[in-house]
Amino acid sequence: MSKLPHISTSIFTTMSQMANEYGAINLSQGFPNFPVDERLKNLVSKWAKEEVHQYLPMAGFPPLLEKIAHLTQTSYGRKVNPSTEVLITAGATEGIFATIQALVNKEEEVIILDPSYDCYETPILLCNAIPKRIPLKDDFTPNWELIGSTMNANTRMIIINNPHNPTGRVWTENDFLQLEKLVDLYPNVIVLSDEVYEYITFENQHISVHHRKKLRENSVSISSFGKSFHITGWKIGYVIAPEHLMKEIKKVHQFLVFSVNSIAQYAINDYMDVVQVADLGCFYQSKRDFFRKLMAETPFELLPCEGSYFQIASYTGFSNENDIDFTQRLVKEFGVAAIPLSPFYADAKQTQCIRFCFAKEEETLKKAVERLQKL
User: Fold this and answer.
1) Which of 117, 316, 342, 369 is the most exposed, fewest CB within 10 Å of its CB?
2) For the residues 265-293, what does the mean pLDDT come to?
3) Are the C-beta atoms of residues 181 and 189 closer than 8 Å to each other?
4) What average pLDDT is seen over the chain?
5) Which of 292, 272, 118 is nearest to 199 (CA)?
């Protein structure tokens, strides 16, 4: 008997398979198609020739833990202990899974804000806990009235994602003030903050849980080297949490993967001496602006994109199809793959919006939009 009878092939796999089958340009799955920094590739080559192929410490390569602590202090003004508050994980997904498995108990409730990434709910269900899926407002900002009315004494965790996948929205100062009020009311609630796109923000500066002194003792943040350094296939990220929470997370991590790829950790440790993560926002803002300018010549209505490398587009002006049918037709008839929004909702809500990934070479974006202009 299946523990997860409702789980099937993800929409990301489905759309990428369709893109391959029909020879479509793949703007669906969130991975870059431009080259990785030569400096990073050279560092991998260098360390592959050294004797660094055995297990590293369970929590991570100590010099890399130190670099993460330094980055957290320079980026957010928060001093963390690299020995007790930082953990290298096999991608952000493993960090999220380990955190939920470690900190959520049977029949406790976890709030998820829809549309939401698909890796949140499964570890909650495997804990025999209760996911409480709450829709964002129509403009994809938090509905604090609804969140407040859902939170109760049985709420163990709220999962936030900022910058947001799939919509590209970012939280404001007021959003964090509202969250802090709720945590004051329910001090046992843990904030799991998925911040994998933290360095990819544009006009509005990213606000992190690290900035919020009131939240730090109740929060676990999830970060991604894969997203920040364009190396999604490496599956390497990190978790930051206060020691009393990190102790429990490490217990799960130890028996899930134990330790993370050694060569990757050595290479990233050196790379952090030369890379400027603060430049990432400008890099992707130019791609966003390029893509949005091209898309102005299509019938799509573009929604705000304040962070991440995703652009939401509405097709309400020219089609009443459901988003699954519409994206499949885009692949088959126009040769462009995108992601429908309905799979990000518990109730498969139809917004007639789809998600494009613009983490691509300009030529790829140009060719894709030329095809979309034929709609």
Assistant:
1) 316
2) 96
3) no
4) 96
5) 272
